[in-house]
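Supplementary Methods, section 5.1.

A reviewer requested that the exact input to the structure prediction be made available. We therefore reproduce it here, unchanged from the version used in the analyses.
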Amino acid sequence: MSTGTTQAGSHALRSIMLLKLFVYVLAFSLPILFYIRQRRAHLPSSGTSAATTTETDGDKSLKTIMQPPRDDLDPPKRDPITLKGLEEYDGSDPSRPIYVSIKGDVFDVTRKRDVYGKGGSYNIFAGKDGSRALGMSSLKPEDAVPDYSTLLENEMKVLDDWHSFFSKRYNIVGRVSDMPEAVAPLRSAAANTAADSF
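The structure derived from this sequence is encoded cell-by-cell as follows.
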C-alpha cells in the first residue's frame, strides 16, 4: 500500500470523525440553546424580545432559529391515531400534513416542511413518536422510538422541555392510542399533573 493511499485514508477517517463530532455537538447544544431561550423569554423585556431578535452593529434585526410561541393555536384535539397510522404523515408525500408525536401527543408541523419534510434536518422525527431521541438529544434513527421509560431524570426534563416547546408552537391534532405499555404510568402521571395545574 502506498503512502499516498494511507494518507488519503487517514484524511477521510479524520473528516468522518470531525463530521461525527459536529453532529454530536449540534445535537447536545440544541437543548441548551432552547433552555437559554426559555430563560430569556421569562426575563422582563425592553421593547423587543431578545428571544426572537438579535441586534447587530448595523442596527439590523436577525431572526433566531427558534420561533417564538404562537397565540393562534387551535384547542388540542385528542383524536386517536396509531403508531402505524402516524407513519403516513412522515413528509414523504407533499400533499399530506407532517406529524410529529412527543409523549403520545401528535403535533402538526407541516408549516415547517423544510425542517421536518423529506430530506429535512429533523425528518427523523416525522411520522413517528421519537420521544426517547428527543430526551436524549439524539438524531440517531435507532433512538427515535416512543418508549421513553428508560430516560434518566435529566433526559426526562429535556423531553418535557421539548413537549412544552412544541405545545406552544404547533397544533395538537391527535393522541397516539397504542403507545408502549412501559410509558403508560408516565403518561398517566403527566395527565394528572396537567389536570392539577388547571
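The CA atoms of residues 10 and 147 lie 39 Å apart. These observations are discussed further in the main text.
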